[in-house]
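User: eRF1 domain-containing protein, Methanolobus vulcani:
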Amino acid sequence: MQSEGQKEIISDELLPVTDIDIRALAEIYDEKPVYLSVYLPVSGRENDHLNRIFVDSRVSAIKKALNPELRSEFEKTFEMAESSVFDEPISGEKGRIIFACSKDSFIHVYRLAVEPEQSFVLDTSPYLLPLAKMRADYEDYGVLLVDSQEARFTCIRSDITEEKKHLSTDLMNKHKKGGWSQMRFNHLRKGAIKSFLSEVAENVQGTCDQLETRGFVLAGPGEAKQQLMELLPYEFQQKVLGVIDVSIDIPRDELVEAGDAVLQESKDSESRHAAEELKTALLKGGLAAHGIEDVKAALEQARVNTLLILKDSSVAGWICERCQNLQANANPPKECDRCGGPTSAVNVVEELYEIAQRTGAKVEFVDKEDFLDSDDVVGALLRY
Ligand SMILES: [Zn+2]
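Assistant: Predicted structure for eRF1 domain-containing protein:
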């Protein structure tokens, strides 16, 4: 939704995290720490109070760590971002992300329906790892809520819901009981349900194509959802992320919660699968790499198909802001040993993630118990 290099984006409505152009953000960097990144949970008075305390303490800590020239840059940047930081939340807003840099006249403000953890970081580029994790947790998906006479297809994007399709039939009206035997009535009713569900099944295809999601949750009371499942063409059965038993008039919030749980389970199983694939490839000497150095080399050559990151991992290191020379497990030297450019301390995992974004690699965050048995925090499945 945002064209490359757009300097000012101030969203005045809720935005799914999948609409944020993380690739364009990953391209941005400066030789000096001039980019401010702020993540805040914003719903409720309590958060407002906590955010003020948190932001004040981060602002003074950052000021103390900067030389006079950079401090004045930072003050200008914070002044530019401040009103967006403390702005009242709009209806349904639970989280906010702000990226700002006064020197570059750059400000992005995103209002979300999901909650990030508090973070306030000044760095040489926008701090993207929390956004990356949110994108991993909140992929767009659909929910098909169905019973024997009603079907609603809702798209859920970072907990923002949008109804895409509503079909219903009136079984009782079509088949008045008058005059028929109970058996005949039941027979006709079954036929009517089947024809309604066939209509729903035909509609699933069009709606799915329109949504561009990886799949949908099949939900509803009773047997209709299972009957529908059998009527779906094979390729759409494959898109069903899970089947859940819920009331047809389940409140919106509960539907989102139940759907999110199914999505999370499906994502976890995808991460576990990628982790298994990595282990197998490493054992057989297949197309895989592990450890910071090997994975970094593969990423820099754009050979990585899927980057696997151990959840919540971080590795201290430094980067040259001129030639992007990246070194793990070392303190930043005064100048880069390759080009003499300025260096800064970084979380190497974040830098690897950004290279993955720039080179179009998929990223999976994997739990400790599923990851490699070694101490490595990253691994990669390679294209060649
Ligand atoms: Zn360098």
